[in-house]
Amino acid sequence: MLITAVTVQGLSYREVAARYGVSKSLVHTLHHRWLTEGESAFEQHSRRPRSSPNRTPELVRARVIVLRDELVADGLDAGADTITETLKKYLATRPATTIAELQQHLDTFRHHYNEVRPHRALNRKTPGAAYALIPKAAPTSPEDPDVWRVRNDTIDRDGKIIIRHSGRLLHLGIGRAHTRVEIIALIHNNHAIISTRDTGEILAEFTLDPTRGCQRKSDEPPKPGVHPVTMS
User: Fold this and answer.
1) Which of 68, 162, 209, 210 could join 78 in a cystine, given CB atoms 3.0 to 4.6 angstroms apart?
2) pLDDT tens-place values along the chain, 232 residues long
Protein backbone atom coordinates (compact mmCIF):
# COMPACT_ATOMS: atom_id res chain seq x y z
CA MET A 1 0.00 0.00 0.00
CA LEU A 2 2.78 2.44 0.88
CA ILE A 3 4.81 1.40 -2.16
CA THR A 4 1.75 1.69 -4.40
CA ALA A 5 1.12 5.22 -3.19
CA VAL A 6 4.61 6.18 -4.33
CA THR A 7 4.88 4.16 -7.55
CA VAL A 8 1.30 4.39 -8.85
CA GLN A 9 -0.13 7.53 -7.28
CA GLY A 10 3.15 9.43 -7.53
CA LEU A 11 3.04 10.79 -3.98
CA SER A 12 6.20 11.95 -2.28
CA TYR A 13 7.66 10.16 0.73
CA ARG A 14 6.48 12.98 2.99
CA GLU A 15 2.92 12.85 1.59
CA VAL A 16 2.68 9.07 2.00
CA ALA A 17 4.03 9.26 5.53
CA ALA A 18 1.52 11.96 6.51
CA ARG A 19 -1.39 10.08 4.92
CA TYR A 20 -0.70 6.71 6.60
CA GLY A 21 0.81 7.98 9.88
CA VAL A 22 4.25 6.41 9.43
CA SER A 23 7.76 7.84 9.27
CA LYS A 24 9.21 9.14 6.04
CA SER A 25 12.26 6.90 6.50
CA LEU A 26 10.04 3.79 6.52
CA VAL A 27 8.44 4.82 3.24
CA HIS A 28 11.91 5.43 1.79
CA THR A 29 13.16 2.01 2.96
CA LEU A 30 10.16 0.12 1.58
CA HIS A 31 10.33 1.89 -1.78
CA HIS A 32 14.02 1.12 -2.26
CA ARG A 33 13.43 -2.48 -1.20
CA TRP A 34 10.82 -2.70 -3.98
CA LEU A 35 13.24 -1.21 -6.47
CA THR A 36 15.80 -3.88 -5.49
CA GLU A 37 13.65 -6.99 -4.86
CA GLY A 38 10.62 -6.39 -7.02
CA GLU A 39 7.35 -8.01 -6.00
CA SER A 40 9.04 -10.08 -3.23
CA ALA A 41 9.38 -6.84 -1.28
CA PHE A 42 5.67 -7.16 -0.46
CA GLU A 43 6.28 -10.46 1.40
CA GLN A 44 7.00 -10.49 5.16
CA HIS A 45 10.71 -10.69 5.89
CA SER A 46 12.27 -12.89 8.57
CA ARG A 47 13.54 -11.11 11.68
CA ARG A 48 16.28 -13.67 12.13
CA PRO A 49 19.75 -12.04 12.29
CA ARG A 50 22.00 -12.68 9.32
CA SER A 51 24.78 -13.85 11.63
CA SER A 52 25.13 -14.96 15.30
CA PRO A 53 28.70 -14.43 16.58
CA ASN A 54 27.88 -15.95 20.00
CA ARG A 55 26.27 -19.07 18.60
CA THR A 56 27.61 -22.34 20.06
CA PRO A 57 29.72 -24.22 17.51
CA GLU A 58 27.86 -27.16 15.98
CA LEU A 59 30.40 -29.75 17.25
CA VAL A 60 30.07 -28.48 20.82
CA ARG A 61 26.28 -28.42 20.53
CA ALA A 62 26.22 -32.02 19.30
CA ARG A 63 28.51 -33.13 22.15
CA VAL A 64 26.32 -31.42 24.76
CA ILE A 65 23.23 -33.18 23.40
CA VAL A 66 24.98 -36.56 23.59
CA LEU A 67 26.10 -35.94 27.19
CA ARG A 68 22.64 -34.82 28.26
CA ASP A 69 21.10 -37.91 26.71
CA GLU A 70 23.60 -40.10 28.61
CA LEU A 71 22.86 -38.34 31.91
CA VAL A 72 19.10 -38.61 31.43
CA ALA A 73 19.43 -42.30 30.55
CA ASP A 74 21.35 -42.85 33.80
CA GLY A 75 18.71 -40.95 35.77
CA LEU A 76 21.16 -38.15 36.61
CA ASP A 77 20.73 -34.40 36.66
CA ALA A 78 21.11 -33.02 33.15
CA GLY A 79 20.28 -29.46 34.09
CA ALA A 80 19.74 -27.25 37.11
CA ASP A 81 17.71 -29.74 39.16
CA THR A 82 18.40 -30.06 42.85
CA ILE A 83 20.21 -33.05 44.36
CA THR A 84 16.95 -34.27 45.86
CA GLU A 85 15.30 -34.39 42.42
CA THR A 86 19.79 -35.40 40.95
CA LEU A 87 18.68 -38.61 43.53
CA LYS A 88 14.91 -39.37 42.75
CA LYS A 89 15.64 -39.70 39.03
CA TYR A 90 18.68 -41.87 39.69
CA LEU A 91 16.80 -44.30 41.93
CA ALA A 92 13.80 -44.36 39.57
CA THR A 93 15.99 -46.00 36.91
CA ARG A 94 17.43 -48.48 39.42
CA PRO A 95 14.60 -50.08 41.40
CA ALA A 96 15.99 -51.94 44.42
CA THR A 97 14.45 -55.09 45.85
CA THR A 98 16.50 -55.22 49.05
CA ILE A 99 17.94 -52.75 51.54
CA ALA A 100 21.46 -53.87 50.62
CA GLU A 101 20.81 -53.19 46.94
CA LEU A 102 19.34 -49.77 47.74
CA GLN A 103 22.39 -48.92 49.85
CA GLN A 104 24.67 -49.90 46.99
CA HIS A 105 22.78 -47.54 44.65
CA LEU A 106 23.02 -44.73 47.21
CA ASP A 107 26.76 -45.27 47.67
CA THR A 108 27.30 -45.19 43.90
CA PHE A 109 25.25 -42.00 43.58
CA ARG A 110 27.13 -40.35 46.44
CA HIS A 111 30.48 -41.17 44.83
CA HIS A 112 29.35 -39.78 41.46
CA TYR A 113 27.90 -36.62 43.01
CA ASN A 114 30.92 -35.89 45.23
CA GLU A 115 33.82 -37.15 43.13
CA VAL A 116 32.79 -37.16 39.44
CA ARG A 117 30.20 -34.53 38.57
CA PRO A 118 31.55 -30.91 38.54
CA HIS A 119 29.29 -28.22 40.03
CA ARG A 120 28.74 -24.73 38.65
CA ALA A 121 28.45 -23.30 42.16
CA LEU A 122 31.96 -24.62 42.91
CA ASN A 123 33.61 -23.21 39.78
CA ARG A 124 33.24 -26.56 38.04
CA LYS A 125 34.95 -28.46 40.87
CA THR A 126 33.48 -31.59 42.40
CA PRO A 127 32.31 -31.30 46.02
CA GLY A 128 35.06 -33.70 47.02
CA ALA A 129 37.78 -31.58 45.41
CA ALA A 130 36.36 -28.38 46.92
CA TYR A 131 36.24 -29.98 50.36
CA ALA A 132 39.85 -31.13 50.10
CA LEU A 133 40.97 -27.53 49.53
CA ILE A 134 39.37 -26.26 52.76
CA PRO A 135 41.72 -26.05 55.80
CA LYS A 136 40.58 -28.54 58.43
CA ALA A 137 40.21 -27.79 62.11
CA ALA A 138 41.96 -30.27 64.38
CA PRO A 139 42.42 -30.56 68.14
CA THR A 140 45.69 -29.18 69.45
CA SER A 141 47.68 -30.98 72.09
CA PRO A 142 47.53 -29.18 75.48
CA GLU A 143 51.29 -29.73 75.74
CA ASP A 144 51.88 -27.65 72.64
CA PRO A 145 54.22 -24.85 73.84
CA ASP A 146 52.52 -22.35 71.53
CA VAL A 147 48.98 -22.88 72.85
CA TRP A 148 47.40 -20.45 75.35
CA ARG A 149 43.87 -20.97 76.59
CA VAL A 150 41.88 -17.75 77.00
CA ARG A 151 38.92 -17.60 79.36
CA ASN A 152 36.65 -14.65 80.19
CA ASP A 153 35.10 -14.85 83.64
CA THR A 154 33.91 -12.89 86.67
CA ILE A 155 35.40 -13.40 90.13
CA ASP A 156 32.75 -14.81 92.47
CA ARG A 157 31.78 -13.44 95.87
CA ASP A 158 34.41 -15.63 97.54
CA GLY A 159 37.17 -14.09 95.41
CA LYS A 160 37.66 -17.18 93.24
CA ILE A 161 37.19 -18.49 89.72
CA ILE A 162 36.92 -22.11 88.64
CA ILE A 163 38.73 -23.58 85.64
CA ARG A 164 38.98 -27.08 84.22
CA HIS A 165 42.56 -28.32 83.99
CA SER A 166 43.91 -31.83 83.43
CA GLY A 167 40.40 -33.22 83.75
CA ARG A 168 39.71 -31.56 87.14
CA LEU A 169 37.96 -28.43 88.37
CA LEU A 170 40.47 -26.17 90.09
CA HIS A 171 39.54 -23.24 92.33
CA LEU A 172 41.84 -20.25 91.87
CA GLY A 173 41.80 -17.92 94.88
CA ILE A 174 42.36 -14.34 93.65
CA GLY A 175 41.05 -12.45 96.70
CA ARG A 176 37.73 -11.12 97.95
CA ALA A 177 38.90 -7.56 97.30
CA HIS A 178 38.31 -8.33 93.61
CA THR A 179 34.78 -9.75 93.96
CA ARG A 180 32.65 -9.28 90.80
CA VAL A 181 35.62 -8.02 88.80
CA GLU A 182 35.54 -9.17 85.15
CA ILE A 183 38.79 -10.90 84.28
CA ILE A 184 40.69 -12.64 81.53
CA ALA A 185 42.46 -15.88 82.45
CA LEU A 186 45.44 -16.93 80.30
CA ILE A 187 46.39 -20.56 80.86
CA HIS A 188 49.55 -22.09 79.43
CA ASN A 189 50.30 -25.64 80.49
CA ASN A 190 50.52 -25.31 84.33
CA HIS A 191 50.86 -21.55 84.33
CA ALA A 192 47.83 -19.24 84.76
CA ILE A 193 47.73 -15.42 84.65
CA ILE A 194 44.66 -13.51 85.82
CA SER A 195 44.20 -9.89 84.65
CA THR A 196 41.35 -7.39 84.64
CA ARG A 197 39.42 -7.22 81.40
CA ASP A 198 39.20 -3.42 81.27
CA THR A 199 42.72 -2.31 82.25
CA GLY A 200 44.81 -5.46 81.83
CA GLU A 201 46.16 -5.21 85.38
CA ILE A 202 47.57 -8.54 86.53
CA LEU A 203 45.75 -9.62 89.70
CA ALA A 204 47.39 -12.99 90.28
CA GLU A 205 49.56 -15.72 88.82
CA PHE A 206 49.31 -19.42 89.57
CA THR A 207 51.44 -22.51 89.11
CA LEU A 208 48.68 -25.06 88.76
CA ASP A 209 48.81 -28.28 90.73
CA PRO A 210 46.25 -30.76 89.35
CA THR A 211 46.47 -32.80 92.58
CA ARG A 212 44.97 -29.95 94.64
CA GLY A 213 41.43 -28.60 94.26
CA CYS A 214 42.26 -25.16 95.70
CA GLN A 215 45.13 -23.26 94.12
CA ARG A 216 47.04 -20.46 95.80
CA LYS A 217 48.78 -17.60 94.06
CA SER A 218 52.42 -18.09 93.14
CA ASP A 219 53.55 -15.30 95.47
CA GLU A 220 51.31 -16.43 98.32
CA PRO A 221 53.19 -18.07 101.26
CA PRO A 222 52.11 -21.55 102.40
CA LYS A 223 49.51 -21.70 105.16
CA PRO A 224 50.78 -22.48 108.70
CA GLY A 225 51.49 -26.14 109.13
CA VAL A 226 51.76 -26.71 105.38
CA HIS A 227 55.23 -27.18 103.97
CA PRO A 228 56.24 -27.67 100.34
CA VAL A 229 57.41 -31.11 99.41
CA THR A 230 61.01 -31.34 98.24
CA MET A 231 62.60 -34.17 96.38
CA SER A 232 66.09 -35.28 97.41
Assistant:
1) 68
2) 767 777 777 778 888 778 778 888 887 787 777 777 766 656 666 666 666 777 767 776 776 677 677 666 666 555 555 455 666 777 777 888 888 888 888 888 788 777 877 776 667 788 788 777 776 666 655 555 667 888 899 999 999 999 988 888 999 999 999 999 999 999 988 899 999 988 888 999 999 998 889 998 887 655 554 444 333 3
Amino acid at residue number 167: G
Whole-angstrom distance, CA of residue 37 vs CA of residue 104: 68
Q: What is the pTM of this model?
A: 0.36
Is residue 90 within 8 A of residue 74, CB to CB? The reply is: yes
Residue 126 lies in a domain: yes
Task: Could you list the beta-strand ranges (E) of 52-181.
Answer: 149-154, 160-165, 168-173
Q: How many residues does the chain have?
A: 232
Residue 138 counted as domain residue: no
Half-sphere exposure of 159 (CA within 13 A, CB side): 12
The three-class DSSP label of residue 169 is strand
Q: How many domains does the chain have?
A: 3
Same domain for 123 and 154, yes or no, is: no
Look at residue 143 and tell me if it is in a domain.
no
Residue 127 to residue 180: CA distance in whole angstroms: 50
